[in-house]
């Protein structure tokens, strides 16, 4: 959640704007967003390129000349996407986002761009196949609205990319995470009814499969704990 009564907070606070300013921003960049949205719908650009262009559009709109940190050498052109991502550092954005975009663009990581907000089961299934879903909410973006009263469309994508990095990073045992999610998906029918009857369990389940990308041992410990707490046999 990017905003509190006292101002902005969170990993991306340096590139956020007040919610009341989102609608005006949306009008200013409407044409560029519609152009990217059309590429998404037509599949006329790779999904990684669309996400990359979306990120740099918002970054340059919000921070202008400070968008790219000075690295002491000239940057390649933005159109040279891989070379550019290999060289750039983004202002105010953890390097996990750049790394996720680069590995996605190089075809090393299986990330899929969608225009909806996946359910817990959809995200679980995707990760059980070794794919991480990322979302651009085009409607929220074009209307200058927060998503679920938490994040704007730009921050939402940054958040998804940061979690994709945690899913694929080598020292978090990607293959072990995939096996964990495969086992979890195979057992889904054993605990599905609790997702409808226990809001606390549902919230913690959603956190486990969406926001807690970690070493499989940590995932397993958390998963066992929340099932015991909900009265589910482990």
Summary tags:
234 residues; mainly alpha; two-stranded antiparallel sheet; two-stranded parallel sheet; 58% helix; globular
Structural notes for this entry:
A hairpin with a 2-residue loop joins strand 1 and strand 2. The chain is 58% helix and 5% strand. The mean pLDDT is 94. Helix 5 packs across helix 8 (153-168), helix 10 (188-197) crosses helix 11 (199-210) and helix 11 packs antiparallel against helix 12. The longest helix is centred in the N-terminal third of the chain and has 17 residues, at 47-63. It is mainly alpha-helical and 234 residues long.
Characterize the overall form: globular
Note poorly predicted spans: none
Oligomer: single chain
State mean pLDDT (0 to 100 scale).
94
**Number of separate strands:** 4
In short:
This protein is mainly α and about 230 residues long. Helix content is about 60%, strand content about 5%.
Helix and strand arrangement:
Elements: E1 3-4, E2 7-8, H1 22-28, H2 30-42, H3 47-63, H4 81-87, H5 95-105, E3 111-114, H6 120-128, E4 132-135, H7 138-143, H8 153-168, H9 174-186, H10 188-197, H11 199-210, H12 216-230
Parallel strand pairs: 3-4
Antiparallel strand pairs: 1-2
Helix pairs in contact: 2-3, 3-5, 4-5, 5-8, 6-9, 6-11, 10-11, 11-12
């Amino acid at each position: 959640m990017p905003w509190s009564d006292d101002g902005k907070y969170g990993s991306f606070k340096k590139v956020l704007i007040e919610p009341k300013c989102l609608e005006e921003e949306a009008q200013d960049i409407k044409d560029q967003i519609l152009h990217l949205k059309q590429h998404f719908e037509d599949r006329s650009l790779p999904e990684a390129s669309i996400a990359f262009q979306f990120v740099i559009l918002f970054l340059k709109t919000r921070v202008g000349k400070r968008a790219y940190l000075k690295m002491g050498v000239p940057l390649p052109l933005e159109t040279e996407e891989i070379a550019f991502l290999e060289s750039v550092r983004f202002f105010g954005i953890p390097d996990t986002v750049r790394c996720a975009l680069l590995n996605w663009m190089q075809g090393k990581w299986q990330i899929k761009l969608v225009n909806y907000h996946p359910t817990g089961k959809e995200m679980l299934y995707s990760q059980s196949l070794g794919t991480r879903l990322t979302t651009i909410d085009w409607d929220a973006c074009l209307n200058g609205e927060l998503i679920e009263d938490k994040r704007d469309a730009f921050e939402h994508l940054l958040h998804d990319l940061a979690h994709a990095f945690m899913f694929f990073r080598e020292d978090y045992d990607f293959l072990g995470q995939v096996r964990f999610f495969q086992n979890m998906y195979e057992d889904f029918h054993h605990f599905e009814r609790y997702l409808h009857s226990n809001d606390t369990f549902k919230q913690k389940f959603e956190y486990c499969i969406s926001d807690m990308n970690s070493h499989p041992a940590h995932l397993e410990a958390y998963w066992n704990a929340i099932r015991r707490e909900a009265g589910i046999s482990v």
